[in-house]
# Entry
Amino acid sequence: MNKENLENSRSVLAVDIGGTNIKTALIDSDYNIADEIKSKTPTTYEELIDYISSLYNNDINALSVAIPGGYNYDKNTIFAPNLTILNGKNILADLKNTFKNIPILIENDANLATLGEYHYIEKAEINNMILLTLGTGVGGGVIINGKLHKSHTSTFEIGHIISVDNGRKCGCGRYGCLDEYANLHALTLTYNELSNTESNLSPAKIGALVDEGDLIAKETFYIYSKHLAKAITDLINIFVPDKVKLGGGLSELSKYYLDDTIKIINNDIFPLYKGITIVEVASLKNKAGVIGAAVNYFKGS
Ligand SMILES: [Zn+2]
# Structure
């Protein structure tokens, strides 16, 4: 416990609900982090609400929650293909039972990672930025002229644009979504397709095979680069951002695909846009969700 440091400052309880783990932290307006906890995401919605509610205390000035799905601000509804216990629930109403008199903010986790990276790492010194999260699912967010783009709902479900016609079935119901070719599981599927096996190789293990000179592993990452480059080229052709940043677990393996991705983008991009957008790995790593949630409270979006 490290609450003493935070006692005299405003602090937000930041909660990052993931498909596998839930991370929580108490964060002050200087982004000092205390009471960081990571545990397995509860398997039922009721247990999830009980868990978050158990973290209530009088020092908290706000609750800011990152969810792994789209959020409708008008109706307070969620669609979360990778954490279906949230679907159809009104998490705002259920958290208000405990967090009665303080602001509660709910936002898509990739949108929050974008917001966190933009304010906390980039210090809002660029105007336009896109972040893609490459993890259990593929998400993202876009900053346009210094603001996170929003509509009636959270936006930028980039994982659900089509990468392959009639391709792999996606959790959203469509076939061939980018998510199925760029998420954590995609590399294993591609490796198995190429090698005609049913291995359970992790992305890190496939990377290790590249280091050992395995040609199938190398081709697996090249195919990954092609799917990613196709999506990023389209995004640059639309937004021409200052930066496209890659976050999420697979950004840690970027040495196996980033150079090829950038090469393909430079080859395919609308010629006038060449050389404007920097494509690089994000800096916030596994704290992106909680820092982003805190930024959403202290800076707004
Ligand atoms: Zn989809």
